[in-house]
Write a structure and sequence with these properties.
By secondary structure, the chain is mostly helical. It is built from five helices and no strands. This is Transcriptional regulator.
């Protein structure tokens, strides 16, 4: 489970805008949001940075 879409919408970013910020294709963002692609640690860190959050909030469920 991830919250990429939730955080992206909070930042009022399109998939394309987010993709350009971190240097990937828009389709990559779509696949990540739909849990069809496991991003590398580097990509996870870049996503968290761009979305102004941390890895735990973005990718791990809260207990």
């Amino acid at each position: 489970m991830n919250r990429v879409k939730q955080y992206r919408k909070q930042q009022k970013l399109s998939q394309l805008e987010l993709a350009k910020q971190i240097g990937v294709a828009r389709q990559t963002i779509n696949l990540i949001e739909n849990n069809k692609y496991n991003p590398t640690l580097e990509l996870c860190i870049n996503l968290a940075h761009a979305l102004h959050t941390d890895l735990n909030s973005l990718f791990w469920e809260e207990s």
